[in-house]
Write a structure and sequence with these properties.
The complex is a heterotrimer. By secondary structure, chain A is mainly α. By secondary structure, chain C is mainly alpha-helical. The mean pLDDT of chain C is about 90. Classes of the chains: A mainly alpha, B alpha/beta, C mainly alpha. At the A-C interface, helix 3, helix 6, helix 7 and helix 8 of A face helix 2, helix 3, helix 6, helix 7 and helix 8 of C.
């Protein structure tokens, strides 16, 4: 145990501190996803609108967000606001802003994809039955898109959780930062603790993400048949 | 006795508890055209798929010219070269042109001379009226054209026996004829063929023997005129009746 | 914005971009190899190996690259496996990307109609030849969009390399901001350089995707 550095985890409140760090990451992901989903749905629907100007502007904005590494976005929001504009933006707040922007872009792309994947004859056969446009959306299109979207949105949660690991690099105290602190504090007594502690962080992330991606996979399989 | 090409002995095939073929035996002789008919789910397609071991069998034996065909045997590809098979649809390779579809197996499997195979393929394409399509891709062809080319592709391997698995079932009515005509001319040339079809008029014209399959058994085996005019079993009668309609309106008025 | 500063910094960014690209491309090449092997194992349902592949894919897809890198770079040396930072970056990227590439290949392989295999078999093609001449060419072109998306994803992921003190674009930007406080200029260059790397691939991806869609495989 000592050789692998697992012993430090059972010292004092170390495990609790690690879990607390994980909770910071999870909290930021949950808030960001909660903002992303409604905003993404609205933007996704706007992106299928007939207005070319709206579509063009949205497209450029969303493609930019999607093509930039999330790290770059974090840096822009964090350093630009704090250093250049002199705001006292905390790392957590900057992260939520960036992840919500990114999540919205991803979500809107999923919504757009789901909407255009519904074959035209679905709209037509709805109208042929005498349904109004609203009824066609309400009873035919939305139920089909929702089934497609739910597994993908759940997947977005795991992607978000994994991405939150980046906030370490703008100084937010999350699970990796706590891990660093624990390793540093025990450098003398347990020089090998980096192995055990980082392995634990690896597994903690896995435990947080795996059930969620299993759920997404299960729903996808169930509804695709 | 004529030359026996294919011999099927007491084969049994099941998927789990579901028995598809039960103690089925059949011999096919050189130059013979056998048409297999029967209700859907009777096992006719499965029978063809067992013959070239796309499906394994649980009991019994299948021999091609005396050599046993088994799903896991080493020389299976060698045996399959001698069995040409055409499927219901979508079996041309979409990433290859018509000519490359035809050339693939003769060149890569039989290692034959390229120009010789090309000449043969052109002659066959000519005969089915598709000489101008050799550089087309499958997506540019109609369903009937694709099926005719699939037949040519099988022929270029010089098979001993041809299996046709409902080759016209997915086609539009006006294309069925062109495919059946190709098969009729093959029969005229004396090819050995096993055909699964729902085209009863065609079956009557092309077959030496008709086999009626139901519930995994051969229920009736007869010459086509006997089978279609005068079926002996009740089940065959019921089956053939499905293709007849009684007028519901009085046309004399 | 101070353009003199920008021109002064460009050589530093160029050097960093080169590192990002070099490690990114190497990592992606290995990811493709790992992915192809895993996909074939999963496709043929090779006993035992398919279990290992399944576990690997879940582990790789459900953990962040940054954590994987920390474990490889800081954790493994404690049990006697020392890795150079560059090697660690490439290995990490291949470990992460392997599972994404495997999924792309596998879905391509599975999208090829079963009847294609059967008609190849009935023409006498062996298993290996069927894979090589019939299944693989179709599977690869079906996988292209997912494949390109993965390449972009992996290149973006290289931005965490700075955490194991590799002097990539992020590292350079952060370093310069810390030293000279030219924040806006540094961030501007960061964005420009990532766009130079990522935009062409993204455009190529959508061109390829459109082409393949019109080529209309299948029916």
């Amino acid at each position: 145990m000592q050789a692998l550095g697992l012993d430090v985890l059972f010292k004092g409140k170390n495990m609790v501190r690690l879990l607390g760090g994980l909770w910071v990451a999870l909290k930021i992901s949950i808030i960001s996803v909660a903002i992303s989903i409604p905003l993404g749905i609205i933007l996704g629907m706007l992106m299928t609108s007939k207005n070319k100007v709206i579509r063009g502007i949205l497209r450029v904005y969303l493609e930019f967000i999607r093509i930039m590494p999330q790290m770059v976005l974090l840096f822009i929001v964090f350093f630009e606001t704090t250093r250049v504009w002199g705001w006292d933006l905390k790392g957590e707040t900057a992260s939520v802003i960036v992840f919500a922007m990114w999540g919205t872009a991803e979500m809107s792309d999923l919504v757009r994809g789901a909407l255009i994947s519904i074959p035209k004859h679905q709209y037509e056969s709805g109208s042929a039955l005498g349904l109004t446009k609203l009824q066609v959306y309400l009873y035919i299109i939305i139920p089909q898109t929702v089934r497609r979207l739910i597994p993908l949105s759940i997947n977005l949660i795991t992607r978000m959780i994994k991405t939150t690991s980046l906030i370490l690099l703008i100084g937010v105290v999350e699970v990796l930062k706590v891990a660093q602190q624990i390793i540093e504090a025990n450098r003398m007594v347990s020089p090998n603790s980096a192995f055990g502690v980082y392995l634990t962080v690896f597994l903690l992330y896995f435990i947080a993400c795996w059930p969620i991606s299993m759920l997404a996979k299960y729903l996808e399989r169930k509804w695709n048949t | 006795m004529e030359n026996e090409i294919l011999k099927i002995e007491h084969i049994k095939k099941s998927f789990g508890d579901n028995i598809i073929l039960d103690d089925l035996s059949l011999s096919v002789y050189q130059g013979e055209v056998i048409v297999i008919v029967g209700p859907s789910g009777c096992g006719k397609s499965t029978l063809l798929r067992c013959i070239n071991a796309l499906e394994g069998i649980q009991e019994g034996h299948i021999y091609l010219e005396g050599e046993e065909i088994k799903k896991d045997s080493k020389n299976l590809p060698k045996l399959r070269e001698k069995i040409g098979m055409v499927f219901q649809s979508y079996d041309l390779f979409p990433h290859l042109s018509v000519m490359d579809n035809i050339l693939l197996a003769p060149l890569k499997v039989q290692k034959r001379n390229k120009s010789e195979v090309i000449a043969e393929a052109r002659a066959l394409l000519e005969r089915i009226g598709l000489a101008d399509k050799e550089n087309s891709y499958p997506r540019e062809l109609s369903g009937g054209q694709k099926q005719r080319i699939a037949i040519v592709r099988a022929l270029c391997m010089h098979p001993e026996i041809l299996l046709f698995d409902e080759v016209t079932a997915a086609l539009d009515p006006e294309m069925v004829r062109e495919v059946l005509d190709v098969m009729l001319s093959l029969a005229k040339q004396g090819r050995t063929m096993l055909i699964v079809t729902h085209e009863m008029q065609f079956a009557k014209a092309v077959a030496d023997r008709v086999i009626f399959l139901d519930g995994g058994h051969i229920i009736e085996e007869a010459k086509p005129c006997e089978f279609f005019e005068n079926p002996k079993t009740e089940r065959a009668k019921q089956f053939l009746n499905m293709f007849e309609f009684d007028a519901v309106k009085d046309s004399s008025k | 914005m101070n353009w003199d500063v920008i021109f002064k910094y460009i050589p530093l960014y160029k050097k960093a971009a080169w590192l990002t690209l070099r490690l990114g491309v190497l990592g992606i090449v290995f990811a493709i190899l790992v992915g192809a092997i895993c996909a074939v194992i999963a496709y043929y349902r090779v006993p035992v190996l398919k279990r290992i592949v399944a576990v690997y894919i879940e582990l790789s897809r459900n953990t962040p690259l940054l954590v994987q890198l920390f474990f490889i770079y800081y954790g493994l040396p404690k049990v006697g496996v020392s890795v150079d930072a560059e090697v660690c970056g490439v290995v990490g990227l291949a470990f992460l990307g392997g599972s994404y590439m495997a999924e792309a290949f596998r879905s391509g392989l599975e999208a090829v109609d079963k009847i294609q295999t059967e008609s190849a078999y009935s023409l006498g093609l062996s298993r290996a030849k069927t894979m090589r001449y019939v299944i693989l060419p179709q599977a690869v072109s079906i996988s292209v969009p997912a494949f390109m998306a993965n390449i972009i994803f992996l290149l973006k992921e290289t931005s965490v390399f700075s955490a194991i003190s590799l002097m990539d674009l992020m590292f350079t930007a952060k370093d310069l901001i810390g030293l000279y406080y030219k924040t806006t200029e540094c961030l501007f260059l960061l964005v420009v350089f990532y766009l130079i790397i990522l935009l062409p691939i993204s455009i190529l991806g959508s061109v390829l995707e459109r082409r393949l869609r019109y080529a209309g495989f299948g029916a």
